[in-house]
UniProtKB/TrEMBL annotation, chain A:
Cofactor: [3Fe-4S] cluster
Protein's organism: Paenarthrobacter aurescens (strain TC1)
Presence of keyword Nucleotide-binding: no
Lineage, opening ranks: Bacteria, Bacillati, Actinomycetota, Actinomycetes, Micrococcales
Keyword Iron-sulfur among record annotations: yes
Keyword set, alphabetical order: 3Fe-4S, Electron transport, Iron, Iron-sulfur, Metal-binding, Plasmid, Transport
Name this protein carries in UniProt: Ferredoxin
Gene Ontology terms, MF aspect: 3 iron, 4 sulfur cluster binding; metal ion binding
TM helices/strands, residue ranges: none
Coiled-coil parts of chain: none
Automatic annotation (TrEMBL), chain B:
Name of the protein in question: Ferredoxin reductase
GO CC list: cytoplasm
Cofactor(s) required, per the database record: FAD
GO molecular function: oxidoreductase activity, acting on NAD(P)H
FAD/NAD(P)-binding domain ranges (all copies): 12-281
SUPFAM superfamilies assigned: FAD/NAD(P)-binding domain (SSF51905), FAD/NAD-linked reductases, dimerisation (C-terminal) domain (SSF55424)
Length: 78, 368
């Protein structure tokens, strides 16, 4: 089970993850989601599993730690 | 989703997946939108469990009591359980001539994109459901002159349960799409390089004719299975397939668009919905693993993206319910509508308002 990450390239702003697991995901005004800092390791929680399953864009990823931080910095830089 | 969720729950058994679509696995929702606007290939399915190969063959029959699928290329395939997930395919227009395009599979989308890339400058879309409306949006965005015709009085009649008709028409008109609602298609003919579609005595002409009149469940291969396939595979609420005799077919299940599930009122209902298909798969995995599943208790969720609008629907929209606009932000074409007043029957439609929509569908206040 790796670190949780919302792929900014895939997320289309459905905000389903926030509706299902607001303790782990936060969204901006357009609905685009990110993982709340400090909650990257909550991937085992039932609400988070449900959020991952219900994401229409399959944008919630679980990555190994190194890859996740690289990807996150890529996303924030773009 | 069935396989992914089963693995998550520790199931170590074998899945044999049979699909005749050479492009499988892929997601369909982008085909009418991003794919037609782009130049790349059909997006590969990163989510597909790598260790599970897909066998390219067509299922042509089911020996129900032996839980054995007959295929065209692989002979008989037997298993402890058979999950029918053959989805639905485009309805063909009666007497429609060859060359009318449609959109369901990756191959359909590729054919359509090739036709546009080859210089088509106009299109007539027959059917204004969500797929027809999304196609109208995408093709107008690509610069084609688009005409939409439908027997229904408004766009997305079923998706909106008859609501928001004037609004959805206005989105089309603002993008330059010409619409004819409440009209019947009388003939479709190809003359020289152009199509002529006659609706209610009016001849419409375009380079492309596209049929988007809906989908029908893929059950023809089950004709001799003794399963009840009167409208999709008739199932219990949790997906156990039913026989024409009324009993349950042991070890046979159906998920997704092909399944017609028993609702609380006793009727059988098919959902053509990405979200519902995912939930069917996850719930079945949980059933196989011996868990009580709450997947199917979630309210239906549907969405469409078109004409610069992200439209979301939560719950079952009552056709007769009163629609009340509870939020609007005109500068970004945003609105939130509530339908129904009894607490448990409230349904919501959001347009470019994901935050307000999500809060509302969670039963929270709209402030913040």
């Amino acid at each position: 089970m790796g670190e949780l990450l919302v792929d900014g390239g895939r997320c289309q702003g459905h905000a389903r993850c926030w509706a299902l697991a607001p303790e782990t995901f936060e969204i901006d005004e357009e609905g685009y989601a990110h993982v709340i800092p400090g909650r990257e390791n909550s991937g085992d929680e039932p609400n988070v599993r449900k959020a991952i399953r219900n994401c229409p864009e399959r944008a919630i990823l679980e990555r190994e730690t190194n890859e996740a931080s690289e990807k996150a910095s890529e996303v924030s830089a773009s | 989703m069935l396989i992914a969720r089963s693995r998550e729950l520790g199931f170590a058994g074998e899945f044999i997946v049979i699909d005749s679509d050479p492009n499988a696995p892929y997601d369909r929702p982008p085909l009418s939108k991003q794919f037609l606007l782009g130049t790349g290939p059909v997006e590969p399915a990163e989510w597909w469990p790598e260790a599970t190969p897909i066998l390219n063959a067509k299922a042509i029959g089911l020996l129900t009591d032996k839980r054995t699928v007959l295929t065209d290329k692989l002979g008989e395939v037997a298993a402890d359980a058979v999950v029918i997930s053959t989805g639905a395919g485009s309805i063909r227009l009666p007497n429609g001539p060859a060359g009318v395009l449609t959109l369901r599979t990756a191959q359909d989308a590729l054919a359509l994109r090739s036709a546009v890339d080859a210089g088509a400058s106009s299109a007539i879309i027959i059917g204004a459901g969500t797929i027809g409306a999304e196609l109208a949006s995408t093709l107008a965005q690509r610069g084609l002159a688009v005409t939409v015709v439908d027997l229904a009085p408004q766009p997305m009649q079923r998706f909106f349960s008859g609501h928001l008709g004037e609004e959805a028409k206005a989105w089309m008109h603002q993008a330059g799409v010409v619409t004819h609602f409440g009209v019947a298609v009388e003939s479709i003919q190809k003359t020289d390089a152009q199509w002529t579609v006659r609706v209610s005595g009016l001849d419409l002409h375009a380079d492309l004719a596209i049929s988007a009149v809906g989908a029908r469940p893929h059950t023809e291969w089950l004709t001799y299975s003794e399963l009840d396939i009167s409208n999709g595979v008739r199932c219990t609420a949790d997906g156990k397939a039913m026989l024409t005799s009324g009993g349950i077919a042991d070890g046979i299940f159906a998920i997704g668009d092909v399944s017609a599930r028993q609702a609380e009122d006793g009727t059988f209902r098919r959902f053509e919905s990405w979200t519902q298909a995912q939930r069917h798969g996850a719930a079945l995995a949980e059933y196989f693993a011996g868990f009580d599943s709450s997947e199917l208790e979630q309210a239906p969720y549907g969405w469409t993206e078109q004409f610069g609008r992200k439209v979301q629907v939560h719950g079952m929209l009552p056709p007769a319910g009163e629609l009340v606009q509870v939020y609007a932000a005109e500068e970004r074409n945003a609105a939130l509508y509530r339908i129904g007043s009894a607490e448990e029957d409230v349904a919501w439609i959001g347009v470019n308002a994901p935050r307000q929509f999500s809060r509302a569908s969670m039963g929270m206040s709209l402030l913040s």
